[in-house]
Every structure is written in structure tokens, then in C-alpha cells.
Q: What sequence folds into this?
């Protein structure tokens, strides 16, 4: 095996390799479906119908995709700085706490102030929870991967403590806060678009989706069109060259982690402010980890992240519908697919590049 | 041809390519048993590849290896060790947290349990130490040993495995002159015991001092085999570099101007606590090139880095245009603003981001320049135009700003860096290894540019491992040894022998 | 006497709670000392817990369950090895993938096969590991302090508990005193040194990764077939990551790792006992604070505020021959 990286044409590099690994991952999922005695084709049909076959299904798909856009972008931004942030879950958790506190404590404010402030609070909470690991890596040399893992668990115990002991709804046995005031929540999409004459079915899709679209554009601008993004990419690709260029890798590490955490906070905005309208336990529900798959599949590029988020949104929604009809195929299938995508598009990238390169050469030769 | 006794090593028509690059082409070599055989050649001539093939680290594409007259296929280091070949790599293959004796037995433990093997190794180490006068504590942690002692551990490792042929790859690159002399003593002792030594180096002084025969490699081919006593450094140098005997650079007499960069008493301590630069003082004047002569690892890199603001001095003062630079002033970004530009020694690790497009590398260090975009944003078209202009002016081929930097040849990558820094009209230019791994055409181009810059009044500090280059380009030459400036010569009065003494730390001209 | 009794009971539950940590920590230690970073300990334990519960249920034999648990875990560790060693992939990414695979697969298969929301049916009789009475318990009982301690804390555990402790001894012994151990320590620090000494880097790392899988298998099996009577979704609940913390805490050494695991197990045992109890002078300590302690301690240690964690130099780096 040669140590030289396999050279591929650009289109193959950016589109074909991730596509092939996703198709392979879906095939693996098909095998699992086959293994538990169901028909993969039938399952696929149900899945597509459930996710894209109706306006309602599409609304749910986009709602899930919103979560994946935020967590995928969070991982992607850190990737560009050469950092692996697997603390999305913890950062979103803290973001949710911050957002909930803002919604509860600032309730006297009018919605036009309260909502942006609460979104800001979520971003600050997520950023802070990611900044600390970034600081510890930049200044104290502790590895950001391990620290973010630990911070996930610390955040998980923190939210339990807060919901049970401090900000829980009085008199309730459930670990959750009281409901937010109506004006502290995000507008559902079917209400938002009603004045335009669009009649949409009621789904959890809310204005956080627009925020996610804005985040995609903003991250593209940041990474590929801004001076800060240039500095981030330089640090990620070659920290020594960055230092030579007068860019402080330590500073960029902290900045990139904070940005990454703020983006992970978007998950809390969608779930806590957009759907639950109160803080509940486990609202992060593994979205943070699937974000790794989204970022890897999207190759860290906002367009790719958007498409991958859409795919996972469809899988999530389709999976939910599928498990109604086929109780043996639960939504955990999406977790499996996510895992396989991470394995194929991330850890086994070399193998898939070789496969694609071999196939291309074959095609050209024949 | 080779006499009656079987040669220790015979290589016939060895070829090896890495992708499109032919590292070895039809290389043949005979090493007589019980001799010290030198292999010389410039960086990248294929010496290390050849030895890695002999040691089983790479497999040759074609060719034949004979050891002690018998044909062998050596496809792994284990097989090389079994055939009695040992190798001391340029970068030591030692496990730092382990003890000397653990390192020695690694891979030759002699059984499942360590206890017996370690005891045996301890006894054997004591014997070898006595035989060759190599005092070393078997229980010391390797990390705690000096570089010279670590090298001894490497040699002991090979001897413990019963090596009859010992390959040393650039063994003196990291040694002080005194340590190097000790090493040569050891090699002679090994020869006296009947061992065969293959010494790879690009330093002619060592070849002349210690070898019996020399083979010269150039661009992947073997170009000469000679007896050491019947050759001279000049003849070897000619064989190494081909017809191009000496670098001649046309230059006008210098017009020395005012002092620009003054450093006084600069010291640098590295991460391991070693003082790598000791109280270095120098002044650069407008319109001159000051060259630094020294064996690699004697403080040149640190001198460049401290002047470029990449490391902080532990002591000393730097003045630019007569003004003392504070710690805050010395950030690389600020130094650039003040007109101090830096072409780093290693373009791929420091000077460029090889994963970036050429255009993006042309703004490395200058991405805050308002010319490249509005406010916090960058404008790709402005960046591309800027890059294209620079690439055309410096004859970078292909002149495609969107091409990934890794795809350019070494010479063109270096021209990218040169274009980027020189286009900024520096007052002071720090240049490290300007022509390392660069083809001849590009070398001439780069040299002409540097001279033109000097003639335009720029103060240039030049660091290069190629003494010839330093002598050809410089107006003044400073010698560095052990982090200390050991002497200064005007270019006209400098000769290789004299500088060699200074580089070895002998500062008396009489010596 | 009362106090001794209480201490013995706490020690007993400490040991019980430490066992999965211990297995996973030894597993992580093997892998990381060889230079392969493994954050997939959690996933491997989980799949082992599932596989062991399924097979123990089907065969009625806990030992068959253990074999299945080890086999499933080793299979996942080979996937990690294939990505990390053969294809030089990112080891963290691969670990994340393994954790997600295990989390998803166990629930899907469990649900498809048993239809109980991912649980396996309860294990009874020989399908679970029984408690083993160590010899001389009755004889030694009369000795003050040591007698009850031996009776309550040391004796009466299931076979995997003793196996796990044995694994610690074996790990320490093999690493320090055998040829394989020396090579393994070397390959995690400087694989090139091992390669030039004529030993296969990939071979060593694969063996380490397989041992890692087997140990995770033991830990996961203990969870499902000994501590509990069957598999529950996500039953590892972060133990694989606490084990990772223990390894870091112990600076990648076996005996300190044992103590770190016992310490974290003790914290867990105390947290359970302290629920709702007010401590004199401090008041009521929130359980969550104690639960978070292992993670906080690891962060503090990694940041170098107390001591210094020095991982094997080559850990996480794929080995590529230099030109």
C-alpha cells in the first residue's frame, strides 16, 4: 500500500466519494432490514413515502433537517480548524438551559426582543460550553476530543440537577420547566406562511428552519469568503504555516470552538423554543452525534451539509413512519445508518477513495 | 574486478521508483568486507533510498542483492538483520521512555519472558562496551541521554543483533564536531574487528577522514567509485554536482547603506531546555547579503525564527531601523508590517499550506490586507488577480492560481513563496535554504532575484546548508557553531577551509 | 462492628460497580498503549452486553453468553482496527461510528427478535452468572474486621468479577515482563523503531485491538448477564467513557487504572447511598455532583492543573513508512 494520497478529479472528490459511501451505508442498512426478515424495497418505499410523500411528511423532514444542519455545521466549522468537536450534545444542552432561562426570566419583554435575546442566549451558552475545551486545548494542551466527551456528560448531569432541583416546574414530577409564554416561542411554519396564502399542515417545522438556512449561508461566507475563515482553514491545514503567517493557532482554536458551540446551540433553538416550548431532558436525542455523519458526508461544505442534513431528516421522518407500519424497524435504524456513514465517509475514506479511483480508471480504460 | 575475497555487499542494477519519481536508476555497488565505504551525494541523490532497499525497508523494483557473495532477497528489516546487516537511521529508531537495554533487545528478546533476554543483553552490552570503549548505563532511560549517546545505543542495537555490515545514514548531521570525532574512532575500531561500515553523508571532510573507498551518487545514479586516497574533495564535489563545478553568481560590488536590523546578545532556549542560540549579535546593512555558514542544527534555524518573531528570545535585544522591538512588536504579523519578510527554511511545512490553491498561498501572512476584500470579507477575484501577476512575474509554472499548491514542483513552490515575500518590498529579507530541493534552472532564477534585491538596497540574511551557495551569494559570512557566532569573514577573503574551521568552533585563524 | 459491616457493604458494591469500568479501562489501555486510540469502548461493551444476553437466553448458559459477548465485541474492534490500522483512518471518527453502530443495532435487533422495546427476556438460573462462594468464608468469619470484609466484599461475586481482576494482573504482568508487552509499549511510542527492528507494526496493533475487544466483551457481558438479568437499551450509560477517563487518570498504567476504576466505582456507590442524605456541615450533596465528579476530575487532570497526563506518543497516529 502506498502512502501517497490517491488523486481524484475534483468532482469525484467532492461528490462521488461521499455519494458512494452513503449508498454503501444504505446498502448495509438494507442488509440489516433483510436480516430481521423484512423487505428492504418495501421499507424504502414506505420510508420515501413517509418522508417526502406528503406535505406533512415533508414538514417533519425539514424540521429534523433543521437540527442536522445546526449540528452538522458545528462539527464542520471545527473540522476546518483541524478540531474534532464531538461535544455537540453537551453544547446544545447548555444552550437549551440558557435559552430556557432567557425565555422564563425575560418573559416580561415583548416577543420581538425576547426571541432574539433567547436565541442569542442559546448561542452564548453553546459557545461557552465549547470555548472551555477550546481554551483548555489551546492554553493547557488537553485534547479537545476527550474534553468535549467529558463535557457532554457534565452537561447531562447539570441539566438533570437543574431540572430536578432548581428550575423544574413546581409540583411536577417530570424533569421539565414550566411552559414558556406564547410570545417567547418561535412561530410554526404553517402559521408563518398562512398570510402568504399557503395552507400547510400542522408540523413542528418552525422559523428555526429559516435560521438554519441563514446559518448555512453565513458559514459558507465565514469559511470560504472571510479573513477569519481563511485563518481558520490555515490553522486546520497547517498550524506551523499559520504561526508563520502571524495567525495565532491558539486564538483560532478558541474562536473556532466557540463558533462551533454556538452553531450547536441552534439545535436547542429549534427543539426548545420551536417545538417543546419548555426545557425537557434529553431533547438533544443524539442529534449531536449524527451531526458528525452529516459533516463528514457533506465534506465540511455548507452545500454538502445542507444536502446531508436533508437526507438524514428524511431518514428520521421516514423512519418514524416506517416504524408505524413495520414495528420491527425502529427509528434506531437512522443511528445505524449514521454510524455506517461515519465509518465509510470518515474512517474508511481511504478505502472508498481507492474504490472510486479504481472504478474511474476501469471506466476510462474500457 | 573485486579481488578474491567475497565482497560484503554487492548490489547490481538496483532501480526503484516512487510513482513518477525514479529514486534509484540501475545502481550498482560493491563494498569490500572489513572496509569503511562512503556514499556521497547531494540531498535527494538517492543514497537513503538505496540503503533502505538494502535494509529491506523498501523493495527494489528490479536488481539483485548479494551479501557475502550469496544472492539474497531482503524484503523486510527482519531479513536484513538475519543476514547480518544493521542500520543506524538519521532519525534514531529508539523508544524514548524505555531503557537502553530494553531498546537493545526490542525485536531480539530471545523468548516470551523478558527476564532472560534482558540479562543476556546486559552481559553482552558490558562486553561490547568494553571492547569498543562505549561506556553507557544500560538502565538509563533513552530520553535522558544526549544525542551522541543515543547514537551509541543505535550502534549497540545493531551489534547486539550480530551485524557484520553497519549502515550509518548521515550520522554526523546531529553531532558536535567532538562527538563526530568520537564516532569516527568507533568506526575505525569496528573496522579493526573486521566489521564492514557503509557511511552515507554529504560532507566531504568526513569522507576524506574516515573512508577507504567512496561511491558518488547523483540524481538516482551511481556516477563514480574511487579509492579515497586517490581522490580529493574537489574531485568528489565535481562528481556530486556534475559538470557544474562551482556556483558563480555575477554581482556588482555592494553599496552598503545604513544599518537596518541589529541584534545584540540573542539567546534562545528550546522546549527541551537546551540553549540553541547563544548570545548571537549581528548587524544587517542596507544593500548587502549576510550569509550564515554552519553545520545543520547549530542554531541557524533558531536565528531565523527568532528574528522572524516565531520564537521569543530568552535574552537579547533586536533593533529595526534603530528602534528597539518590544515583545509585542515582534509578532510575525507586525514584523511584516514593519518590512521584515521571511522566506522560511521549510516551504512545505512552514511557508505554504500545500492543501490550498496557489492563489490562497499568495496571501498567506497578508490576508488582512484591505486590497484583498471589503471589511472582514475576502474577494476571490482580487486574490486570483494578485496571484496571477506574481506567478507571471516569477515565472511560476503552470501559472494557474487555482491549482493546488501540492501539485507544483519544489522549484515552483519556492518561487511562489519568493514572489509573495519579495513583492511586498521588504526592507529586510530573511531567507532560509532558498534552493533546497529546487532544480538548477530555478536555482539560478532565485539567485538572480536575491542579488537584484540586494542591489535595490534590501538587507538580506541568508541561511543555507550549502556552503557554496553561502559563499557565492554573500557579501559577508558569519559562522555559527553550537549556537554561537564563531567568526566573521568578508566574502572576498573567505575560503572553504577557513570557514570549515569556524564552523567547527575553532575560532583562531592560526589553527 | 456496625461500621465494619457498612464499610464492607460499600466496598462490595464498589467492586460490583467497578467491574465494567475495569474491563473497559484495561481494554482501552491495551489499545492505546499500542497507539490506537479507542473511544468506542462504550459501543463494544454495549454490543457485548446485547450479544451475551441473547445467547445466554437462547442457550441457557451464561458462559456461552460470555463467548458470544466477546465475539461480538471483537468483531467491532476488528472493524476499528481495519479502519485505523489497515486504512489509516481517523481513529476518533471510527470510534464515534462504532458507538453509534452499537447503539442502533442492539435496539433494532433486540426489538425485532423479542419485541420488548429492545430489551431481552429476563435471564434465569444458569443463564446468569451465579455468586461464587470463596473457600474458608465460614472459617474466617470469626476474625474481626477482616472476616466480614472477606465474607461480604471479597467473596460472593460472580465469575466475571474475578476474571476482571485477573485481567488486571495479567495486563500488568504481560506489559511489563514479556516480549509481547515490550513490543506493545514500543509500538505506541515509536512504531518506526518497532518496524526497523523487524517486527510488524500492524500485527502488534491488531493483536492489541483484539485484546481490547475481548476485554470490552467481558465488561459488557458482566453488565447484562451478571449485574442485570438481561439487556436493556443503552445499559452501558457512559461507562465506556468513564473507563477512558480512568485510563487517562492512571497515565495509561494498569495498577493505577485499577485504583481509578475502584475510585470511580466508589463514587458511584456513595452517590447511590447519599441520595437524599444531608451531610453534616455540607448539607445535601446533589447526586449529580458526585456523578459528574469522574468527568470533572479528568478534565482537571488533562488540563494539567493536578499532575500531568502523558499519553503514548504515537497514539492516534496511523503508521506510515517515511520516505
A:
Amino acid at each position: 500500500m502506498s502512502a501517497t494520497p490517491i488523486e481524484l478529479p475534483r468532482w469525484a472528490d467532492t461528490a462521488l466519494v461521499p455519494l458512494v459511501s452513503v449508498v454503501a451505508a444504505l446498502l448495509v442498512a438494507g442488509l440489516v432490514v433483510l436480516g430481521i426478515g423484512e423487505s428492504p424495497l418495501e421499507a424504502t418505499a414506505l420510508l420515501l413515502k413517509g418522508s417526502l410523500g406528503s406535505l406533512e411528511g415533508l414538514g417533519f423532514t425539514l424540521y429534523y433537517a433543521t437540527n442536522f444542519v445546526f449540528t452538522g455545521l458545528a462539527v464542520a466549522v471545527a473540522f476546518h480548524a483541524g478540531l474534532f468537536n464531538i461535544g455537540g450534545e453537551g453544547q446544545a444542552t447548555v444552550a437549551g438551559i440558557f435559552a430556557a432561562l432567557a425565555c422564563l426570566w425575560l418573559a416580561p419583554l415583548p416577543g420581538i426582543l425576547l426571541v432574539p435575546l433567547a436565541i442569542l442566549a442559546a448561542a452564548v451558552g453553546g459557545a461557552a460550553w465549547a470555548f472551555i475545551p477550546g481554551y483548555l486545548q489551546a492554553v493547557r494542551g488537553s485534547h479537545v476530543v476527550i474534553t468535549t466527551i467529558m463535557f457532554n456528560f457534565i452537561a447531562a448531569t447539570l441539566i438533570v440537577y437543574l431540572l430536578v432541583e432548581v428550575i423544574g416546574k413546581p409540583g411536577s414530577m417530570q424533569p421539565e420547566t414550566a411552559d414558556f409564554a406564547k410570545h417567547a416561542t418561535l412561530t410554526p411554519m404553517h402559521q408563518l406562511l398562512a398570510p402568504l396564502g399557503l395552507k400547510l399542515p400542522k408540523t413542528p417545522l418552525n422559523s428555526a428552519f429559516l435560521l438554519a438556512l441563514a446559518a448555512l449561508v453565513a458559514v459558507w461566507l465565514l469559511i470560504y469568503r472571510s479573513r477569519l475563515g481563511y485563518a481558520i482553514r490555515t490553522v486546520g491545514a497547517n498550524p506551523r504555516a499559520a504561526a508563520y503567517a502571524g495567525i495565532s493557532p491558539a486564538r483560532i482554536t478558541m474562536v473556532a470552538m466557540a463558533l462551533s458551540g454556538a452553531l450547536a446551540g441552534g439545535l436547542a433553538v429549534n427543539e426548545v423554543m420551536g417545538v417543546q416550548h419548555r426545557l425537557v431532558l434529553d431533547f438533544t436525542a443524539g442529534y449531536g452525534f449524527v451531526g458528525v455523519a452529516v459533516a463528514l458526508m457533506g465534506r465540511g461544505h455548507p452545500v454538502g451539509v445542507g444536502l446531508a442534513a436533508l437526507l438524514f431528516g428524511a431518514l428520521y421522518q421516514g423512519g418514524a413512519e416506517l416504524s408505524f407500519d413495520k414495528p420491527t424497524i425502529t427509528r434506531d435504524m437512522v443511528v445505524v445508518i449514521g454510524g455506517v456513514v461515519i465509518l465509510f465517509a470518515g474512517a474508511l475514506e481511504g478505502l472508498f477513495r481507492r474504490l472510486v479511483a479504481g472504478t474511474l480508471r476501469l471506466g476510462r480504460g474500457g | 574486478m573485486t579481488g578474491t575475497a567475497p565482497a560484503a555487499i554487492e548490489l547490481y542494477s538496483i532501480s526503484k521508483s516512487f510513482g513518477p519519481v525514479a529514486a534509484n536508476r540501475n545502481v550498482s555497488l560493491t563494498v569490500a568486507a572489513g572496509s569503511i565505504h562512503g556514499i556521497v551525494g547531494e540531498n535527494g541523490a538517492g543514497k537513503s533510498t538505496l540503503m533502505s532497499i538494502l535494509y529491506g525497508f523498501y523493495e527494489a523494483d528490479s536488481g539483485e542483492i548479494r551479501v557475502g557473495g550469496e544472492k539474497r532477497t531482503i524484503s523486510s528489516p527482519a531479513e536484513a538483520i538475519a543476514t547480518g546487516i544493521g542500520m543506524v537511521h538519521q532519525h534514531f529508531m529508539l523508544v524514548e521512555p524505555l531503557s537502553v537495554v530494553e531498546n537493545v533487545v526490542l525485536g531480539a528478546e530471545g523468548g516470551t519472558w523478558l527476564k532472560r533476554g534482558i540479562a543476556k543483553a546486559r552481559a553482552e552490552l558490558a562486553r561490547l562496551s568494553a571492547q569498543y570503549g562505549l561506556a553507557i548505563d544500560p538502565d538509563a532511560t533513552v530520553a535522558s541521554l544526549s544525542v551522541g549517546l543515543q547514537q551509541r545505543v543505535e550502534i549497540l542495537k545493531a551489534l547486539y543483533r550480530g551485524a557484520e555490515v553497519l549502515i550509518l545514514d548521515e550520522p554526523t548531521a546531529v553531532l558536535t564536531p567532538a562527538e563526530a570525532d568520537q564516532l569516527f574512532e568507533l568506526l575505525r575500531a569496528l573496522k579493526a574487528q573486521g566489521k564492514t561500515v557503509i557511511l552515507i553523508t554529504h560532507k566531504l571532510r568526513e569522507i576524506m577522514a574516515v573512508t577507504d573507498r567512496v561511491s558518488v551518487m547523483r540524481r538516482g545514479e551511481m556516477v563514480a567509485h574511487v579509492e579515497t586516497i586517490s581522490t580529493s574533495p574537489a574531485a568528489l564535489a565535481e562528481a556530486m554536482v556534475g559538470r557544474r563545478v562551482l556556483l558563480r553568481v555575477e554581482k556588482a560590488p555592494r553599496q552598503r547603506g545604513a544599518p537596518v536590523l541589529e541584534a545584540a546578545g540573542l539567546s534562545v532556549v528550546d522546549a527541551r531546555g537546551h540553549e540553541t542560540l547563544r548570545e548571537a549579535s549581528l548587524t544587517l546593512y542596507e544593500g548587502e547579503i549576510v550569509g550564515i555558514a554552519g553545520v545543520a542544527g547549530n542554531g541557524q534555524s533558531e536565528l531565523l525564527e527568532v528574528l522572524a518573531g516565531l520564537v521569543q528570545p530568552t535574552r537579547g535585544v533586536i533593533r529595526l531601523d534603530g528602534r528597539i522591538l518590544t515583545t509585542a512588536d515582534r509578532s510575525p504579523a507586525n514584523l511584516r508590517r514593519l518590512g521584515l519578510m521571511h522566506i522560511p527554511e521549510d516551504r512545505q511545512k512552514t511557508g505554504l499550506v500545500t492543501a490550498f490553491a496557489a492563489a490562497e498561498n499568495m496571501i498567506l501572512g497578508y490576508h488582512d490586507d484591505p486590497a484583498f476584500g471589503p471589511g472582514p470579507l475576502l474577494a476571490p477575484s482580487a486574490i486570483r488577480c494578485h496571484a496571477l501577476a506574481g506567478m507571471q512575474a516569477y515565472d511560476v509554472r503552470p501559472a494557474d492560481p487555482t491549482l493546488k499548491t501540492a501539485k507544483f514542483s519544489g522549484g515552483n513552490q519556492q518561487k511562489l513563496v519568493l514572489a509573495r515575500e519579495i513583492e511586498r518590498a521588504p526592507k529586510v529579507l530573511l531567507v532560509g535554504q532558498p534552493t533546497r530541493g529546487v532544480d538548477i534552472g530555478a536555482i539560478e532564477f532565485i539567485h538572480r532575484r536575491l542579488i537584484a534585491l540586494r542591489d535595490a538596497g534590501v538587507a538580506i540574511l541568508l541561511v543555507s546548508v550549502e556552503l557554496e551557495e553561502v559563499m557565492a551569494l554573500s557579501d559577508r559570512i558569519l559562522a555559527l557553531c553550537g549556537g554561537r557566532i564563531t567568526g566573521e569573514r568578508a566574502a572576498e577573503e573567505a575560503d572553504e577551509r577557513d570557514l570549515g574551521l569556524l564552523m567547527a568552533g575553532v575560532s583562531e585563524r592560526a589553527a | 462492628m456496625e461500621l465494619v459491616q457498612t464499610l464492607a457493604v460499600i466496598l462490595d458494591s464498589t467492586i460490583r460497580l467497578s467491574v465494567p469500568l475495569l474491563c473497559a479501562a484495561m481494554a482501552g489501555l491495551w489499545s492505546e498503549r499500542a497507539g490506537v486510540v479507542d473511544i468506542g469502548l462504550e459501543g463494544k461493551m454495549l454490543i457485548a452486553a446485547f450479544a451475551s444476553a441473547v445467547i445466554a437466553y437462547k442457550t441457557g448458559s451464561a458462559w456461552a453468553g460470555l463467548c458470544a459477548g466477546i465475539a461480538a465485541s471483537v468483531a467491532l474492534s476488528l472493524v476499528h482496527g481495519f479502519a485505523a490500522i489497515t486504512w489509516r483512518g481517523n481513529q476518533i471518527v471510527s470510534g464515534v461510528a462504532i458507538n453509534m453502530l452499537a447503539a442502533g443495532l442492539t435496539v433494532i435487533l433486540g426489538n425485532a427478535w423479542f419485541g420488548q422495546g429492545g430489551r431481552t427476556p429476563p435471564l434465569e438460573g444458569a443463564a446468569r452468572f451465579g455468586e461464587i462462594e470463596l473457600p474458608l468464608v465460614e472459617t474466617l468469619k470469626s476474625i474481626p474486621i477482616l472476616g466480614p470484609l472477606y465474607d461480604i466484599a471479597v467473596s460472593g461475586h460472580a465469575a466475571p468479577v474475578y476474571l476482571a481482576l485477573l485481567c488486571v494482573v495479567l495486563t500488568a504482568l504481560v506489559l511489563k515482563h514479556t516480549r509481547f508487552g515490550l513490543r506493545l509499549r514500543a509500538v505506541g511510542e515509536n512504531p518506526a523503531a518497532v518496524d526497523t527492528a523487524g517486527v510488524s507494526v500492524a500485527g502488534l496493533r491488531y493483536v492489541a485491538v483484539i485484546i481490547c475487544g475481548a476485554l470490552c466483551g467481558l465488561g459488557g457481558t458482566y453488565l447484562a448477564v451478571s449485574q442485570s438479568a438481561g439487556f436493556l437499551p443503552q445499559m452501558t450509560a457512559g461507562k465506556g467513557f468513564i473507563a477512558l477517563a480512568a485510563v487517562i487518570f492512571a497515565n495509561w498504567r494498569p495498577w493505577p487504572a485499577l485504583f481509578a476504576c475502584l475510585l470511580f466505582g466508589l463514587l458511584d456507590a456513595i452517590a447511590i447511598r447519599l441520595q437524599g442524605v444531608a451531610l453534616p456541615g455540607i448539607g445535601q450533596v446533589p447526586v449529580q455532583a458526585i456523578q459528574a465528579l469522574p468527568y470533572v476530575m479528568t478534565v482537571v487532570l488533562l488540563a494539567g492543573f493536578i499532575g500531568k497526563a502523558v499519553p503514548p506518543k504515537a497514539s492516534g497516529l496511523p503508521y506510515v513508512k517515511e520516505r
In short: Chain C touches chain A through 53 residues (CB under 8 Å).
